[in-house]
UniProtKB/TrEMBL annotation:
PROSITE patterns: RRM. Keywords: Exonuclease, Hydrolase, Nuclease, RNA-binding. This is REXO5 exonuclease. GO terms for molecular function: exonuclease activity; RNA binding. One of its GO terms (cellular component) is nucleus. Residues 467-541, 562-640 form the RRM domain.
Length: 732
């Protein structure tokens, strides 16, 4: 069965705001894996990145999260496909920040016409790795040292008089490409006998440590070599484990077809006084010219993007070194020699050495001279963006757009090109590219500052209306406190006022969350409150006529799948208390206890996220009517559990209770524009759907509403992402 990639992101409640740097972090790792210092993003995780079929980024310029929720019903495909969503802060030059430093320099001369591709420039034919192994991928057996190589590179060999007395591991079964790999590394001290092993580590193919032991040397230690070995006299004083004990344990752990991986492993096997027939030596695997070898520390950083043997550590960690050598071998086998050759390690090493020399030279100069030299020198080139790194690895990014991306020339302007033509071009070219950026646009006439202001007011008004309920009628002298208590059990109340314009008094309640207002409508309509049988309803305005449809679609939104809302909590309860109380609920994955974003106080509600939808349904039955520390709980399906919750809260804070429906008059002024925009958004959603359907499984797709900066204020952006074919959660 083919392995698939999957994506995990804890984008829940207050953790849904993502910076440009964090987005860049995700795209860089998705495109490059562990190459070029790319590491797993800090805010989400891609599992089995090497199995990704490609990365597709769809950019909708001059659109924000405001557009997504104003035209929520029209974005039918987007809201049903992409599970993970996050808020973006608007940027003046969005695409430049997306590419990272150095993108302008590289892409300025390569953008031509509608598409812009970066071609492979490195000459692989001269690379020693390419010359030795060719360009095709091979199984692990192709990289096991031959008998001649074992002899040439001073490995202990069975039957040789030189290695008389050495112990064989007993691993005599024939190796195949599915034989297990084990990473091995030792640290040695200098004794009267020579180099003796004092610390040995063995890790399996998953990086799990199977053996990590200090060893007592047979002879007196002459030099502990602490700066390299990390061994001190005090560490060895209580150690009883002997070399023969380690040999016995290794023979017991290793299966008969085991392949050992290490960096200059001949030194380790000599110190262990052991013979093993099947070895992959990463110092030889990543060959240099004239039989020179790269250091493990350099390869770890250049190939895997990880720092090892750090200066602040005393000595080397053999478990870390064993794991690193193993990961290097796995990378080589999975990616193939051509991909490794494309890293251009020799060039990277030269650049690193030049930087070190320059740093030492600067350190020797007086401070004043250094300042003057910096003033005289031209500015350094910025760090390469990940698109430049893609060029080095031979990948060809694809850029498609219908308008000028920015003044730096990231893509050639082509204003005559329509979204339909871009879609057709994308359907043809995206399958041929491992990284694509597609830009669809509604056109400048539909993204003007004036229209943005209209949309902002309209969405704000509609959200406010959805958070408000009217309850009544009540008796003249009803108890307002009891009404507030009853309705407060549905969720946090922002404001409560008495309506006196009616024959009998009503109460207008504005909640902080959508779920609370909906829970009040569902559970208290027709109930007896403060001595009166009341009706609970939302405001009746033109904008609210489709409220029931919108509520239903929010419930079905893939972002709210497996998430429930719980109200009626006492404000004194803590998140730790809730974790303990709800621990009995099956498949509970995450708990979010909202806070007032200004006072940081907990609200009287929470959201529970479950790994399975059915577990959420079961939890609803259990929680409804459940009494928690004297408080009766109420629950329902979530409507705005993710980034929408935070956005609604911020809009509430800025708008307050601005309930005059002045926008209805303004809407009458632009009916044709409004309807035309709805049609265009619906068509845009259809284009994205067609493009998404054409993608291979295991393709990471990210849709970005960059956000807007205008004279009428800024609007946050929105990101939606998912891996096609991935229906799993963080457990994958």
């Amino acid at each position: 069965q083919e392995k698939s990639s999957c994506l995990s992101a804890a984008l829940f409640g207050e953790d849904c705001e993502i910076s440009r740097d964090q987005l860049y972090e995700l795209l860089k790792f998705a495109a490059l894996g562990k190459c070029h210092n790319a590491s797993q993003p800090s805010w989400c995780r891609i599992y089995r990145q090497s199995h990704l079929a490609g990365v597709v980024v769809i950019v909708l310029p001059e659109m924000s999260q405001l557009h997504f929720y104003q035209f929520y019903l029209q974005f039918k495909h987007l809201r049903k496909v992409f599970r993970h969503r996050f808020t973006l802060t608007p940027s003046a030059n969005f695409l430049a920040s997306l590419y990272g430093e150095g993108a302008n320099r590289k892409l300025q001369n390569t953008a031509q016409g509608l598409t812009s591709t970066i071609s492979k420039s490195s000459d692989l034919q001269c690379d020693p790795i390419f010359q030795k192994y060719g360009g095709k991928k091979h199984g692990l057996t192709s990289y096991i040292l031959t008998s001649e190589e074992l002899n040439k590179y001073d490995y202990p060999i069975k039957g040789s008089p030189r290695w008389k007395g050495f112990v064989c591991t007993g691993c005599d079964k024939q190796r195949t490409d599915s034989s297990p790999l084990f990473g091995l590394d030792c640290e040695m001290c200098l004794t009267a006998k020579g180099n003796e092993v004092t610390h040995v580590s063995l890790v399996d193919a998953q990086g799990q440590c199977l053996l990590n032991e200090l060893v007592r040397p047979q002879s007196e230690v002459v030099n502990y070599r602490t700066s390299f070995s990390g061994i001190t006299e005090e560490m060895l004083l209580p150690v009883k484990t002997s070399l023969s004990d380690i040999q016995t344990r290794l023979k017991k752990i290793l299966p008969r077809d085991a392949v050992l991986v290490g960096h200059s492993l001949n030194n380790d096997l000599q110190a262990l006084e052991m013979i093993h027939p099947s070895v992959i030596d990463t110092s030889l695997l990543f060959a240099r010219t004239e039989s020179r070898r790269f250091k493990l520390k350099f390869l770890a950083k250049a190939v895997l993007g990880k720092e090892i043997q750090c200066e602040e550590m005393v000595g080397h960690d053999p478990a870390e070194d064993a794991r690193t050598a193993l990961e290097l071998a796995q990378f080589f086998i999975e990616q193939g020699p051509a991909k490794v050759a494309e890293l251009n390690l020799e060039m990277l090493l030269r650049a690193e050495n030049l930087a070190k020399v320059s740093k030492k030279k600067d350190a020797l100069q007086p401070r004043g001279c250094r300042v003057q030299q910096q003033l005289n020198e031209p500015p350094h080139l910025s760090k390469p963006c990940f698109l430049e790194c893609l060029q080095v690895t031979g990948q060809k990014p694809l850029l498609l757009g219908r308008q000028e991306l920015d003044s730096s020339g990231l893509c050639q302007s082509n204003l005559s090109t329509s979204n339909k033509q871009i879609l057709q071009k994308a359907l043809e070219d995206v399958p041929l590219s491992t990284f694509s950026i597609i830009q669809f646009s509604l056109g400048p006439e539909n993204t003007s500052s004036r229209l943005l202001a209209e949309l902002c007011e309209k969405v704000g008004s509609k959200l406010t209306d959805m958070l408000i309920i009217y309850a009544g009628p009540f008796e003249e002298n009803f108890c307002l406190k009891s009404v507030k208590k009853k309705f407060g059990r549905c969720g946090p109340i922002q404001s409560l006022t008495v309506v006196t314009e009616t024959y009998q008094p009503y109460v207008c309640i504005q909640y902080e969350v959508l779920e609370a207002a909906q829970l009040a409508v569902e559970s208290l309509n027709g109930a007896e409150v403060a001595g009166s049988c009341i009706k609970v309803q939302r405001p009746v305005t033109a904008a609210m006529l489709d409220c029931d449809v919108l509520i239903k679609e929010l419930e079905l939104d893939v972002e709210n799948e497996g998430v429930i809302y719980v109200a009626g909590l006492k404000q004194s309860i803590t998140e730790k208390d809730l974790q303990e109380e709800f621990s009995q609920l099956k498949d509970l994955e995450m708990l979010f206890l909202p806070k007032d974003l200004q006072s940081a106080k907990h609200r009287n509600c929470c959201f529970l996220k479950f790994q399975k939808s059915q577990s959420a349904v079961d939890a609803l039955e259990v929680i409804n009517g459940w009494t928690l520390r004297g408080s009766k709980l109420r629950s329902r399906n979530a409507l705005a559990s993710g980034h929408l919750w935070r956005w609604i809260w911020q809009m509430n804070c800025s708008n307050g209770k601005q309930r005059e429906n002045i926008f209805y008059k303004k809407m009458q002024q632009l009916p044709d524009c409004e309807q035309d925009l709805k049609k265009k958004v619906k068509k845009l959603d259809s284009h994205i759907q067609k493009l998404y359907r054409s993608l291979q499984n295991n393709t990471l797709c990210v849709v970005l509403f960059p956000g807007v900066n205008s004279t009428y204020g800024s609007q946050s952006g929105l990101g939606l992402m998912g891996i096609k074919g991935d229906r799993g959660r963080s457990a994958c």
